[in-house]
Description:
Largest sheet: 4 strands, antiparallel
Number of domains: 2
Amino acid sequence: MKLLPQAALVLVAAGLIGFAGFVLITGDSTAAPVRPMTPPAQAMFAKPPALPSATFGDGRHEVLAEVPAGIYRTDGSTDDDFPLCSWRLYESTHLVSAGSATGPVSIVIEPTHDEVQSIACKPWRRIG
């Protein structure tokens, strides 16, 4: 290939961590197209998926998708007339653990649990 006087060396940026590729511009229209060496920048900086909440309230919640595994604490019942906070833990739709308390209480939600259910409890917050 014959180099033309107007040939220029062009740096093609292909990432933000020091990777680069070079291409020689010769004015020859038969040159092969240059492809980036790394994924497009927008893919590198895409927002990660939303993380599950570290708190949850009354109702039935899917573990891992809605509630991450961990140790959770509540300050007790939401009802002063019937001060009993109850919870249930499920694995493969089977009840594996349940309990009730009249005051503050902590529970451990394992990654093997499929669902957690809270009944008449103040919000649960992750503490570990």
